[in-house]
Amino acid sequence: MPFNFNGISLIEGLERFAEVDKDTIAITATNRADWFTNFLLMIPAYTCLLLVNSRQKFGLRSVIYALSAMFAIACVSVAIEFAQVFFDGRISSFKDVYSQVLGMCLAFVIFFMLRKRAHALLCKFSSTKPADKWEVYATLILLVFIFYNLMPFDLSMSFTEIANKWSEGKISTIPFLSVVQNPFQGLLSIAVDTLIWLGITWCFLKSGKYHFQKVATIVVSIAIVLEILQLTVLSRYTDITDVIVAIIAVVLAKKLFTRHAIHTQSADQSSSKMSYVIAAALIYYLMLLGFATFPMDIVGRKQFATSLGNYFSTPFEVYWKDQPYVAISNIIRKIAVMIPLGMLIAYWRQHLREPKIANVLAVFVVLAVFFQEFVQTLIASKVASISDTVLNFLGLFLGYMIYRYHKGKQVQPTEERKEEQKGAKGRLSAYFTLVLPIFFVLYIFLIVLYKLPFTPYNVKELLELYSLPVSVFIIALFICFALFSPVIVMLQYRHKFSSWSHFVLLFGPLFTFLVSMGMLLVFPKEAIFDIVGSPVWKHLPNFIELLYRLVGLLLPICMLYVAMLAHNLIQRNRIQKKMPTKTPLQSQSTRGELPNAYRAAAFWVSFLFIVLPFSFFVVVVQAGTDNLTELFEMGGYSFSMLGFVLFFIMLSHLGLRIYAWLSSKNLKNTILGLIYLIVAGPLAYEFVQLGFVDYLLKYNRLFSPLQFLLSPDRDSLLAPETVKTVFIMLFYVLVASLSLTSILHIRVSSKVLANCKRDMQIEANAKDILSPRYKTRDKHQSM
């Protein structure tokens, strides 16, 4: 981070790396925190590798395995330090490698001293028993709490430095002195610590493995040891108040969390539990919103525009500029505060009888979390960032997964479970085998395209945001997403849509938005400016304006692609909806539903009278610059613009249907398809020429728009006859690419639907096995 490539060659990088100091390992006052951070950095990864082999007895083989794992991680550390040579703002140092190896040596010694207990602890963490789960929760909270209180690891065992810490007032033996000095901050810290110790105590009691006296001893002892350890952390405050708060939390836990209170619940409490949960969640969210907006100092319009621009800044750039301790603290806090709301979403989805109500409440919670961060753009003393929103959503996801882990999944019959896993694996492998080869072909093709001398400079500009391998890798991923995400979404949610037009009208705008976001992330801004023009809005960030213009430009194209793809899949596969005899995105209308012709008419009416006018309004009427409109006939205010619409309709229709025509058993369809393919190239050229002006006077030259777009550079313009040939060749390349994509879509959808049909049969068999009728019949047969 922050990925500032310096562009040096590999040979120069090796020379710089060879000059790095390899002898210094001393701990100084300036590098103490960094040294201890690296000392602890590789211990978790190394411990996990040791735990994989924890059942093996201590011997030569286990020692060789442990040393091999240490050597492998050390090689990764050296590779990281070597990679930092190629980034500005980063410093390579073998001191980091040495400290990481020393940390792994300590983990090696401790692990082989306590390997039996480590294996038992691993089994306990892997257990699905409720008692073990609550003990795991308590242990994890304790580990995170201890780690947080020892940050930023600027440790020292020097009595002189600890005495200096005392003289600076960072050690307090007077209880609640911080509350007197800063009431608000002191009371808030006490409240947070009390809740944390209450949660740890409650989890231990909930497990049912410990008596209250033992839990109290564990909690208070850990609090005392933690304060003693904080004496060695020079930047942290050591306060006797924290120990007293732990004792208070234990006393409160005894009053609130007795075994009877934990394990018993009246009928009235059970019936009103959902109301209490919703009320508690609302109070919790209002508290978060209050902390986020206090003291409600509203900004003006210009300052709001600045705050909005800062909100859409580069993700996590703010944390990179902060000190490591501050950055990690903020990251943990932003994630942790949203975990309860994520658990609430999972609770609703499990306990509410109406799934739609649970989904609506979940969407409401997600929007509320986004609003809680976004509203800070209106507050003068607050800093809002999209990075915080991402962390908040990560907290929601973690809370959701924690609740699912806690509740567990229903146990299915062994054979049926194996068959279901096999079906799921088949679906994933179908997706993987589809995307991976195309990705590698695109990667090689883009590199070759960049190296060719006759490639237009406009295309080469798209590959120059990062170094060539990185840019090509990112763009290949983006193209794979654009090509294959519609079919994957369509197959995954095939039960939700009644027809192909229904799917297109719902997914098409979302797909356009995602593609536009991807273009802003993977292509250089200068290339985007060449396409949609430079930003002109004054009071909104450039990011929003560019996204708006890209959506207006791409919406018709993406809608046509999704429509032709969905219709093609239905025609070829007849995707199943609920039973094998029915089709999703049905080809036949049922009673109470609109006929399929009306659904198709609804799509084309929406496309012609909503999508196209919106695109015209954004691209032509609201054009920020004349980068595009100067190429159009009469600046875009002409019916000749429909030539572009006809071109994209013919391209998508021909590309996604030509394989079906040419491979048809009907000779008539094959001949007509072949004729259509031959005529389509020259016809596509005429459609595009219809929309473009004949000639354009620019850069003291007279040329056609296609000459400008397809020539290698401005000084080497292609001849008009060559331009037509190149355009027709490119058109057929696009048709072949879409046809190949269509074939792959059909193949993978066939595999997925076969697995879905098998899963449906497995589910039906499982229901028969669990039904009372089956059990009665089995009982009679055994008699």
Summarize this structure briefly.
This protein is mostly helical and 783 residues long.
What does this structure look like?
With 783 residues, the protein is mainly alpha-helical. It has 33 helices and 4 strands. The chain has a two-stranded parallel ribbon with strand order 1-2. Strands 3-4 form a two-stranded antiparallel ribbon. β3 (696-698) and β4 (701-703) form a beta hairpin. The longest helix has 51 residues, at 720-770. The termini are far apart. The relative contact order is 0.05.
Average pLDDT metric: 75
Task: Report the count of strand segments.
Answer: 4
Radius of gyration: 32 Å
From the N-terminal CA to the C-terminal CA, the straight-line distance is: 71 Å
Structural class computed from helices and strand pairing:
mainly alpha
Poorly predicted spans = 260-271, 409-428, 574-594, 773-783
Placed side by side, the strands forming the largest sheet appear as: 1-2
Main sheet? Answer: 2 strands, parallel
Helix content: over 70%
So what's the overall shape? globular
- Name the beta content range: under 5%
Give the count of helical stretches. Answer: 33
